[in-house]
Amino acid sequence: MAPERRKGDRIVFERGFPAHMMSIDGTWRRACIMEDISEIGAKLTVEGSVEGLNLKEFFLLLSSTGLAYRRCELAWVNGDQIGVNFLKQGDKKKKIARRPENQDADA
Questions:
Q1: pTM of this prediction?
Q2: Which of these, 62, 55, 61, 63, lies nearest to 82 by C-alpha position?
Q3: Mean pLDDT along residues 15-37
Q4: How far is C-alpha 41 from the chain's CA centre?
Q5: What pLDDT digit, counting tens, does each position of 28-85 carry?
Q6: What CATH number is attached to the domain comprising 18?
Q7: Considering the domain boundaries, does residue 58 fall inside one?
Q8: What ranges make up the beta strands (E) of the chain?
Q9: 94 belongs to a structural domain
Q10: pLDDT score of 4 more than 70
């Protein structure tokens, strides 16, 4: 068995928790079972192939109405199981405004 790499405590669901994965733009959707979850990520068993899907960023829908969801990014793939990291509101890389070098503060 591989050593545990995840940080933080997690909740393991005995029978799994039914959920769906959906692309940010709504072009694809897959049923999945959430095997475990922590504050920072989850392990999912995906129904059907994930080949060809853009898993860089997607939604994990936790309710049938889509009102409970988490924005995710792919962490790892092992057969039909994937690990995801949860993204927070400010996680996208922000462009940092840089002052040109050699610029005087009094200019």
A1: 0.75
A2: 55
A3: 95
A4: 7
A5: 999 999 999 999 999 999 998 888 888 999 999 999 888 899 999 999 999 999 999 9
A6: 2.40.10.220
A7: yes
A8: 10-23, 29-38, 41-46, 58-61, 69-78, 81-86
A9: no
A10: no
Domain that holds residue 30: 10-86
In a domain, 105, yes or no: no
Kindly state whether residue 16 falls inside one of the protein's structural domains: yes
Count of domains for the chain? 1
Radius of gyration of the chain (CA): 18
